Amino acid sequence: MSKVIAVAGYGPGISHGVARAFGKNGFKVALLARNAAKLEGYVQELRREGIEAAAFPVDLHDLSQLEKTFSAINSTLGPVTVLHWNVYTHVLKPVLEQTPEELTTQYQGLAAFVRAVQLAVPQLEGQAKAAILVTGGGFSQSDIEGVQQFVAMVNANTAASISAAKHNLVANLRHSLQPKGIRVAEVMVTQVVKGTAFDNGPGGLEAGAIAELFWKQYSDDDAALQFCVKI
User: Fold this and answer.
1) Measured between alpha carbons, how far is 123 from 118 in angstroms, rounded to an integer?
2) pLDDT value of position 13
């Protein structure tokens, strides 16, 4: 049976790199994001590289849409073998000035991650080398004073708290899902990634290098012993 990776929060940076890395290793790729036209463009690009891919337009913050999406992936490509969660939502505004709607929208992303895992697990169970891979952020490093000073300066308080909560969830899920044979790992990105919305000049990380780390976390049993790798 062919393996399938569902890449949630698809865009031109890390997620596209992950799709290419796994696709070139025989995976079918399910692309999940809101913009159907953009997704179709990425599907065509991947197909030109010989990678089987399909688009699944979805608002990943709308929990009611997720069940239908995972069912559609299973029907179209087959059961998910790897879930890559690359969803990121932020409001750069002082946390004490954010509206209830802004707060709800951001923290909804955390609930969506949990719901996606709940829906993915029945498809992952029983498959060889099933995994949940998560893109983490350096803002989650609450024990590093300089990081949190920067977070406060750029008004990324909610983004940092959500990132930290997600990091803890990954650590917990690693132990919860290990008996089911499901690997859980995170790559914590601590710098700007080239080609993304945050790229405003020279420097930064190549998305391909991050994607290769994800592939190593998935394919290398020794690497997987360290559930979180920073880059």
Assistant:
1) 10
2) 85
